[in-house]
Every structure is written in structure tokens, then in C-alpha cells.
Amino acid sequence: MVLGCLGLSSLVTAQDLPIEKIKSQIEAYKKDVRGPYHRIKWYCDDGTMREPKDPCPDNIGGIQHASLKTEVEKLGNDHHIYFSNILAQNENEAFWDEAHNNSRLKQYQLVKFLQNADDGWIYRRGQFYRGAMQSEDEQNWGLEFYEWLLKSNQRTKGHFLLLKQSLTDIPHSGDTNLAQKMRSESKVLGNEVPSFMKLRIKIHGNPEKRDIASVKDYVSKHSSTLSANQKKEFNTLINTMEDYYKPLDIKDIKNLTNKLSSTHKSKITELLNAYSENASAKDQISALGSVLMYIRKHFDALSSAKDKLYALDISNKIEKTVFQTSQEWQPSHLSDMLEKIDYLSYIAAATGLIEPWEYDKANHNLTLYKDKNHLTIAELNDVLGTSRSIVEWSAGMVKAVYSETVETYSQFEPKAYGFIDDRIRSSIALDLGNSVAILGKYISEKSSIKNEVIGVSKPATIRGLNPGYAYGELVVVEGSIENIDFSKDKIYVFNRPPSGLKPVAGIMTVSEGNLVSHVQLLARNLGVPNAALSQGNLDDLAKYNGKKVFYAVSTKGNVLLKTEKQMTSEEKALFSKVERSTNKITVPVNRIQLDQTDILNMREVDASDSGKLCGPKAANLSQLKHMFPDHVVEGFVIPFGIFRKHLDNPMKGQNMTYWEYLKQTYQECENMKKANKTENEVEAYQFSRLSVLRTAIINMDLNRDFIAQLREHFKKAFNKPIGETPVFLRSDTNMEDLKEFTGAGLNLTLFNVLSEKNIIDGIKQVWASPYMERSLKWRQKYLLNPEYVFPSILVIPGVNVDYSGVVVTTGINAGGKDDLTIAFSKGAGGAVDGQSAETRMVASHSNQLLSPSREPSFLSLPKTGGTKREYTTFEAPILSEKNMQSVRDMVAQVREKMPEQTGSDYRGPYDMEMGFKDDKLWLFQIRPFVENKKASSSEYLKSITPKIDYKQHIDLNSKI
Question: For the chain, first and last CA: distance in Å?
Fold first, then answer.
């Protein structure tokens, strides 16, 4: 099912928040001696409040802390934005905030980060307001909160990473987040003292214990140029670094272990006994990793909240040591590097960055090196692909947990974007990513595959997803993708593509979403080069923002990105005017039967009606209804002819019909082209005119006979009057799923619409959607006669599926032509909207996990209409073996029956949308899977694709 208008946005959208007002409040609080605080009061246990000099009586008890300014409290009440850094005033359940995806807890962590990163942030002066908070009260609250929270496995299930991360911020045992403090202090000094920036970058990106000596040496050499205050700040940084790099005191860990009341105490103690301070870095990590994984796997089985709290504290203390120790493990040979990547991937699973079941799926490739003297290039590429995936999954987990909160805050505080980066860089994912980059560089050299990307320090971490080439301005989006006016002539680098992406020249993305999202399918169809890169790569490319570049991705996935000056004559020739004018198609107007002006039941339609009476969605789903009646819902079709009949009505505000207005618009566009007007001038005129048409269609009056038919067909198809069954209104034009083009996701689908008024209004919105700017821009890359694009509408009830997604009946970027590429997410509309879906390559007797889901929220379909947003976690796979077998069986039948029953000569792969409810498979759509043959067969792309001997053996004792 298509998410045409309902993306999964952040908790609070920009339209809901008074952004400018919040920005001004933040600036005011930074200057206020009390910050966001109002005044200090006593809060007594009986619910009463007293003045500072009138404490709560001993027989009642209470605590003293600051209250917040009225407008700060209003932000919480009206918009669920909480700036408070005082814990003691919170109720446990409200702070855990389960209904809002634990937003308040995450906001507390984010506010703490901003305080460290921005000199106190809104508490810049308020932090010195005496009596605002009491550290003892905060500690006691933290302990009581965790004892409440950890009592319930139901509350904490799936939140292992969040629990561990929260313990570094919420006071409960006297610990502080030293890693964050160290990075923040070094960042401040890097900004103040330009010559320190290089060392600051080292501390931020590749921290090691020897950095302490480097900082001391820097201060000694530059003492004469540093101010007294700067020297003081450097001493503070050195003290923080020395605290952070204190060696693990195994006695402290064992003392914590001895507090455990469960039977697990002896096992953890036994595992800790394998650790020795005198052992090598590898052996230390091996010993401590076993403790971390034991805690991870047995966490839910611990008998009490206190035991769980001790176990999490043990895990955090050990994780910090492993993070530091991994920097000291410097492999010199290939076998050592493969072993280190294997160990660190295990640590990623043990610390919550990936799920244990995900690690189990990846384990085969990660351990290929064991008991072998050599591996082939093909096997090394398997290891590299899997280890890259572990890094991506790890970063994706942190983003899945925190991105919603960060996106909300970033609307009014851009520094919030640094929070996710800070969390990733303080985890084992940092060194794992560095190690994978070294391995990638080594394999690239051995197999002659090299990414040539300007200004990027670790190009081996970039991988091509879709072949193609492009030339244009490079746009590096470091922040939010909201409100970006995408251009077809530009190449975009961002964290994740928006679901409503307009045509662009090229794409590079940190979060690739999934291989079968609408954006990815359109990219493949149009030959738009597309690659996945790391956050570090994106940061490196930022300095080229606004520069003209050439960008290419080969069929083997190697990536080129160079400046305009570096382009060869062959590359410049690719963008001649002659080349750009080719590869356009014509909508087959002669097939359209516009005299069909009655609604049709799905049972009256089949695949042969595609492009005649209705679009392919309705025709093909109707065909599936004939073939698999128990797996397809009932429904009806509003054919092209009904829309075309309405266009003959007078257009309000114009002295002509809608159809005459449309024809006049395109005729004038042709006249402008003949008059040598620029492409941009013609486009601006067309969009302006069609915007007026779109608004007029939305406001048109529907014909009375059509409304009567509509009411009649609701009763026939659904056995209920209109307004009692929520339905999907799916736009279905005659230009979708042509042999040369797929219109995946270009037009509007309305979810679960219930009332008669909303259904009638929705029909007009769907009819108007082909005239939206995004839809027009994608179409105009291909169509010679765009005025003959007509929408039909498929009307079907929603199935409130447990999970849904897309199946492409061939391998994409991996696997063979008979394999299946499957991407599923929880809820309705899964996978197709650029979500981080669970993606698998499924063969006849096996399946490979390409990526797990990292989509924290999903849509469900209540019977009352509309959609409900719900949240999920990732501790179990979405698809079961039973589900995957059901998909295999269904695809086998489709491959056999579809050509036979439709009389089609099409034998290529299909793109199918489906879902599962209580393990029953439901079919929602089928269409040909269209790839851009021009891009995949380009002679230029072939020329930059190296010939690789995948059977070449590489000695594991080789130096790396």
C-alpha cells in the first residue's frame, strides 16, 4: 500500500510548533541569570508547596528545587517539548512517556547534551542559580525511577540500548558521561584556538589514551599564546581525559557483580576471571565481550530491578573499557583485521547496537576467515559487505532510537543534530567503522575496484546502489531535508531521502532506506545514480557543497565523484543536448476508452483493461482477484471516463471547460518552446497554470449521477452504506507501469477514509494529484504528450495488516534473476516509502538478511477511519520462515498464472505489494519491475567498471 500523503514524520511537525518563538525563547534564556527557571520552592510530599525559607515539616518531608517559567511549562503542556533538566519533579510513568516513544526521557538526554555542547545552552547562566536542583535528590530520584522501570519486562522489552544510554545521563550512582564531556570540552577549545583544531578532530574521531600526552605537549608548546582562561580550560580537559582513561578496576566490577542476588552472579564472576590487565588488547576484548554478551542475552531473566540496574552498570563500565582498548588493537595482517572486525561486531550485538538475532544472521560471513589460510576475492567481498552492514545497522539503531526527538529539536536548535553523532562516536561502531574502512581499502586495491571521490578520507565505505551518471551542482544536506526545493539538475547528499522526492540528477544517502522503496525504484527506472555512504563521508563532502561535479556509479557499484574541472572530454560529451532529448515515450491515447462512465466492480475488470478503462493498479489487482480470490479484498474502480466526463464541465472562474483549459495550457507551452523560451520559463508557466487547474478540480462539484453510483457500489461491494466502511482511494493513471516507465508512488493514495464527505473530497484530491509539481516533474522526464494523463481510482477497504511490504521477483544488486528481493515493515504501507525496512534476498531454500528494520513507528488502520501511529522495537525479525515460504509459493503461482491468464508476452520480474495479517498473505498490487536499460548498458559505465577475478586467492597472512 502506498503512503501517498501520510509519511512517518517527527513527533511534532514544523507546522505545529511555534518555531520562531521557541528560538527567541532559547536566546533569551541563555542571557537570563535564571535561565528557564522561575523561582525556588519547597515541594512537600503531601502535595503542598512552600517558600524557600519555609521548608516542609519533618513529619511530611519534601524536596527543594526551582520551578520553570510559565512559557516553558506551556511548551510541555501544548507541544510536548520539555526543556527541564530537573528530574526530581517528575512522575515515573510520565517521564518514561511510553505513549510518545519515550520522548521525555530522550529529551532529557538531549538537553544534557546541549548543555555540554553549548556552554550550558539555555542554562548558560541559570546553572549557577543557587538551589535550583539538589544533586542528592536527583540521585535518589534516578535510583527510584530505575527500580520502578526495571521491575517490568513488558516496559523494557526491546529497549536495551535506550536503557544503557539513559544510565550515562540520569544520575543514579555518582557516574557522569565523561566521553561526552571530553568531546564537548575539546570542541570548545578547538573553536577558541584554531591551531588546536587538528588535535580536537583526532579526539572526536579516533580517540586514544595517548591523546592525553598530545594535549599536554600542545599546551607546553603554545603556553605563551594561550590566555589564562584557555590554560584553565586545557587543564580541565586533561583532567577529564585522565578520568576517562583510568584503567578498568576489575575489583569494582566484581564488587558490583557480588551485589547480584541471582544465580547469574557466579557465571559473570567466572567470565570476569578470564580478564587480565596484562593481556593483549585482543584478549582483553575477548574476555570482556563474553561478559557483555552474557548480560545482553540474560538481561530479561534477571530476578529483580536492582539486579538489572547492577547488570546495566556493569555493562556500561565494561563497554567503556572495550571502546578504549579497541584503539590499542592495531592489526598488521589481514587475518588479524578480519578477527578484529568479527570481535567488534560481536561487541555491537552485546551492547545493543544490533540485535543478537541480526548478529547470528551475519555470523557466517564474519567468520569465513577461521581455520583458513586464504580467502578468494569473492569471499572477502562477502565479509566486507556484511561488516559494512553491521556498521550501518549500528548507526541505524542509534538513529531509530533518537532521530524522532532530534528531528523535532533541530527545527529550533540545529546543534541537536550533533547528538546522534555523539552517541555513535562513543560506541564501538566508531572503531568498527574505521576497521571496515581499512579492510575496504585493502580489498579495493587487490580487486582493482576503487571509489574515486573528491575530498573523502575513507572512500571504501561508499557503495553504489544504482548505476547511472550525472552532472550538476552538489548539494550536501547536513541537517533536515524539510523545505528543500529539489532540482532536477542537482546531485543531493543527505541522511535519508524524503518519500516525496522530486526528480534529481543524483542521490547519495547515509540511510539507504530499502532497495524497493518508491524512491529507489524511480531511481533505477530513470537511471539516477544512487549510492550509500557513511556519516563521515557526508561530513567530508560538505566542503564541496554548491560546487559543480560529475558523479557516476558503475554496474559493479564503484563510485566516481569529481569536480567539473576534472571531467574528461568523454564525460563532458555525455551531457550534450542530443543525448538529453532522447528516451521519451508517448502515452498510448488510442487505447483509452473514455466512453465508460459507469463505476465498475473489480470482478468486472481484468489486466486487459489496463490503459483502456483504468490504470494498472486497478486492472492488475482485479486480475489477482480472479486468480487468488481469497487473498485480495473486494472493491470497485472509478474509470478514466468518469474523470474525463467531469473535465467537460465549466471550470469555475474561467470562460471554458476544464478540458479546454488543460489543452490551452499545453498548446501555449508548445508555442513558448517554438519561440525559444527557456526550459525553466516553459516549466514555470506550466506549473503555474496547472496549479490553478489542480485547485479547481479539488473544489469542483461532482455530478449527481456519479454520487448516486458511488453510494450504490459501496452497498454492492462492501455490504454497507457509504460512510460505514473505511476505504483506500488509490490514484491509478494511464501513464503508470508502461514498459519503459514505472510511476511508483508519484500520485496520491488516501488511507482509510470513512465519512461520505471525506470520500467525495478525497476523490477530487486524487483526481487532482497528477497535477502536483512532483508528479509533473517526474513524468516530464519521459512523456511527450503529458496532457493525456488521466487518473482512475481504485476503491478498496484497508486490511489492518501486522506488517506489509514489497517483493521484487528478482535479485536487486545481489542474488540471481530467480531470487526474490523482499522488504517489509510493521503496519500498513510498509517499505514502499523509503523506510528502513527489513530487507532479504530469498532463494528457493535459503534467505539472506540484507538489512534489518530500523523503522521505529508504523501505521495501523482503526475501524473508525484514519490512521493511528504506533511504535515498535527490533528484538525479533518481522518475517518468519512461514511468511517467506508463503511469499515463495505466491510468487511461483504468479509467475505461472499471470502470463497464461492475461495473454501477455511479458516474462520479466514483477514488483508486488503485499501484507500479512495473522500469517495470512494479502495481495495489494502487482506491476512489471522496470529498470533503466540505458543506464545499466551504458558504454561509459562499462568503461569505469573494473574486470575482477573473483576466484583470486588472497593469503590471510598478507600485511594490511
Answer: 48
Backbone angles phi, psi at 199, to 5 degrees: -70, -35
CA distance 931 to 923: 23
Q: Around Cβ 404, how many Cβ atoms within 10 Å?
A: 23
pLDDT at 736: 59
| Alpha-carbon separation of residue 728 from 181, 480, 481, 706, 911 (angstroms) | 51, 30, 28, 18, 20
Q: Judging by DSSP bridges, how do beta strands 838-842 and 791-797 pair with one another?
A: unpaired
Quick check: 548 pLDDT over 90? yes
Contacts of range 815-824, beta carbons closer than 8 Å, 24 or more positions apart: 815/841, 815/843, 815/848, 816/843, 817/909, 818/843, 818/844, 819/843, 820/887, 820/888, 820/891, 821/515, 821/516, 822/879, 822/884, 822/887, 823/514, 823/515, 823/516, 823/517, 824/853, 824/878, 824/879
DSSP H helical ranges for 505-597:
518-526, 535-541, 569-573, 577-580
Q: Which pLDDT value is given to residue 5?
A: 34
- CB atoms under 10 Å from CB of 647, counted, come to 20
CB 472 within 8 A of CB 505: yes
CB atoms within 10 A of CB 909: 23
Averaged over 801-820, what is the pLDDT?
Answer: 87
Q: Side-chain half-sphere of 117: how many Cα atoms within 13 Å?
A: 19
pLDDT value of position 9: 37
High-pLDDT (> 70) share of the chain, %: 91
* Bridge partners of residue 858, in order along the sequence: 870
Q: Within 10 Å of residue 249's Cβ, how many Cβ atoms?
A: 12
Residue 778: alpha-carbon gap to chain centroid: 23
Query: What is the percentage of the chain residues whose pLDDT exceeds 90?
Result: 61
Averaged confidence pLDDT in the chain: 88
Residue 248 has a pLDDT of 75
pTM summary value: 0.82
Please say whether the beta carbons of 240 and 179 come within 8 A. Answer: no
In order of 68, 147, 618, 775, 919, the CA distances from 141 in angstroms are 19, 10, 58, 54, 44
Is pLDDT at 782 greater than 70 in this prediction? no
Q: How many helices (H) and strands (E) does the chain have?
A: 34, 26
Tell the burial category of 140 from Cβ atoms under 10 Å away from its Cβ (0-12, 13-18, 19+): middle
Alpha-helix residue ranges (DSSP H) falling in 824-938: 881-902, 933-937
Residue 514: the pLDDT is: 53
Residue 846 CB partners (closer than 8 Å, separation 6+)? none
What per-residue confidence (pLDDT) applies to 4? 35
| Set of cell numbers at residue 97 | 512517556
Q: What's the one-letter identity of residue 163?
A: L
The 8-class DSSP code of residue 157 comes to T
Q: How far apart are CA 259 and CA 269, in angstroms?
A: 11
With cut-offs at 50, 70 and 90, classify the pLDDT of residue 458. confident
The pLDDT score that the predictor gives to residue 82 is 97
Task: Give SS3 for 827.
Answer: coil
Provide the 3-class DSSP secondary structure of residue 32. Answer: coil
Q: What is the pLDDT of residue 512?
A: 59
